[in-house]
Amino acid sequence: MGKIFDDELASLKADFMKMAALVRDAVANSGQAFIDHDVDAANVVIDHDHEINELQTYLEKRSFELIALYQPVTTDLREVVGVLKSVTDLERAGDHARNIARSTIKIKGQDRIPEVEKVIATMVNEVVKEYSQSIDAYAAVDESRAKETASIFNEEINDLYNGVASPSYRTMTEKPDILNSAIIYLNVAKDLSRISDYSTNICEWTVYLATGKIIELG
Q1: Residue 84 CA from chain centroid, whole number
Q2: Which is a Pfam family this sequence falls into (predicted)?
Q3: Three-state DSSP class for residue 26
Q4: Which CATH architecture has domain 1-211?
């Protein structure tokens, strides 16, 4: 394909990993802000969301340009398509991190449910771990690790979501005075669950990079 294309592809992949790191920071920092009731940290996540959006637009544009200019085939084409598809999942995960940051602001000063916040803290840690492992597998084009990551976390994150949802719904019935807090907990759990789903998508794109096959790991 030539050295120029190789250099362009390497640059594209480096910028993709930069975006992946920004999203990881957004997920981790928004989750920690919610756990710590830290509105200032939440605002930082919200303020930097535009960086993720701008990188998505840039990466999509560059991917289309590489395809049009060089018409890559086989493995080279898969690498470009992998970036083109995966950036959407990264951007959406970033959107959910921003949502969690906004929930941190909304719940400030409201009554809390300690048992639910404990589960959310565990869920945050596991979602960050899953996301990090999915990105590492993608970077290494490690099919086995991608499949293992999806397998390990899918059921666990679902169980943690239920661990938030059940007491939140119960609280809505038993203590309507803290209805708003219960709704916010549900929204945060949903956002975390969706980030987990996008991590699974990244694992699926890793399998595609390695094999050329599109499969479902969920």
Answers
A1: 16
A2: PhoU
A3: helix
A4: Up-down Bundle (1.20)
